[in-house]
């Protein structure tokens, strides 16, 4: 299963899903660290969230590196890289 042969829109959907799931998990860990809703360690949850964001970011970069893609797809991929990069930077600074 070669990811370079997949459809660009499908890859961008997967990148979005991985990225949003990672951001939500990191936000849950961050909210729990401030409000102390659960007495559980939030490090593993935060790590999984950051890993999912990295997967989403790498898929978006993979779409950017493909040849013969439309300009609209390239713009969507650039926006996804920017959003996930800023989110990763934020969650690294919060840790």
UniProtKB/TrEMBL annotation:
Q: What is this protein called?
A: Uncharacterized protein
Q: Which UniProt keywords apply?
A: Membrane, Transmembrane, Transmembrane helix
Membrane-spanning parts: 16-35, 47-65, 77-94
